[in-house]
Amino acid sequence: MSQPFNIAHIETSSFIYGPGERFVIWVQGCTLGCRGCWNKTMLSKRPKQLIAREKLLQQILDIDSIQGITLLGGEPLQQLSNVFWLLQQVKSVDLDTMVFTGYEWQEIINDEKAKILPFTDILVSGRYVANLRNINLQWRGSSNQQIHFPTAQYDASLIKEGNYVEVHFEADGRMRILGFPEIEEIRFFEKIGFIEYPSGNSFNNQKIS
Amino acid sequence: MSAVVKTVTPFTQRDLLLEALDELGVVYQEKGNAIMTERVDDYGAQRFIYEQGAYRFQHDSSPWRKLNFNKWKTVSAFLGAVEKVYHQAYERLQQRLAAEERRRLEEERKRFVEQQKQAVIQRAKEQGYNIKEIRKGNKIQLQLVRTTY
């Protein structure tokens, strides 16, 4: 029996983390310690939502409209065994795959982590570097981060640089703001919404998780 | 790196909010359009203030400067607890109401969500975003894209 995934957050439908509509999974836990990380609540390896990988796969397969899945976090490659398994399964049913990792390309290709590459159509690699922050780069938070296309599925023509934000409204008025918003945008959402305030995040007034 | 920012349920119904606070054992005092709680931070009593159709929680933005928080050490934990009980109270209210009144309540909620959505759209336009709206059942997604290169 495999260890379950430790998951921070799931969006069953999003359009800004890769081509088309995607099932997006933020894993819980990361030890890379990038200064200025936006997702500090996803750093702890303590269990948040433990989900058996088979169950997670079924959730993905239950959604007909998606083109692929995207994994980010937290650090997906610190749950390598499950991530590798999930990528393989998803590719086998003709969905495409994208992974955001804080590991550098060289750290991946010279390591066991490289085994995910044949099953990863788009890989965004590299630590987040706060003083290289640039929110106008598609899929990257800082300019040192790189996009790779390990399979033949896509190439660099896919990239349309810009700032991407997605706002989800639930029927009861809850909102989720995803992507790469300016701090000022988050402040705006704080004014019209009721953003939670855990301690220890990069901003004073909102929950970035 | 990408953000996930979550807001809590807007507390649109005063009676339900008070019911939730009562149920949680939170001591509070009503003052005009504010509900002052017993939670005190560097800026005084943390409070719910009615603004633009819902109660907003006002407090010091440095949550670690807690002074008298015996329970729910962070604002996030506190609001999470209030949200949960408020939801339950909302459900109970819906069950109590006649069909017509239930519809009115839902319409009111829809209007509030629509008002929030319009505020986001307006702001996004001002910031130069292209906006695409997608509806999925009773949920709405706004994609905001500002191509730069």
Structure, described:
The complex is a heterodimer of chains A (209) and B (149). By secondary structure, chain A is of the alpha/beta class. Chain A has four helices and eleven strands, in the order E-E-E-H-E-H-E-H-E-E-E-E-E-E-H. In chain A, strands 3-1-2-4-5-6-9 form a seven-stranded mixed sheet. In chain A, helix 1 (53-61) runs parallel beside helix 2 (80-92). Chain A is globular, with a radius of gyration of 16 Å. The two termini of chain A are 29 Å apart. With 149 residues, chain B is of the alpha+beta class. Chain B has one domain. In chain B, 41% of the residues lie in helices and 30% in strands. Chain B is built from three helices and seven strands. Chain B has helices at residues 14-24, 75-96, 99-126, and strands at 3-6, 28-31, 34-41, 44-51, 54-58, 130-136, 139-147. In chain B, the strands form two sheets. In chain B, strands 2-3-4-5 form a four-stranded antiparallel sheet, with no helix packed on it. In chain B, strands 6-7 form a two-stranded antiparallel ribbon. In chain B, strand 2 (28-31) and strand 3 (34-41) form a beta hairpin. In chain B, helix 1 (14-24) crosses helix 2. The longest helix of chain B has 28 residues, at 99-126. Chain B starts with a strand and ends with a strand. The relative contact order of chain B is 0.12. The chains are: A alpha/beta (209), B alpha+beta (149). Chains A and B meet through strand 1, strand 8, strand 10, strand 11 and helix 4 of A and strand 1, strand 5, helix 2, helix 3 and strand 7 of B.
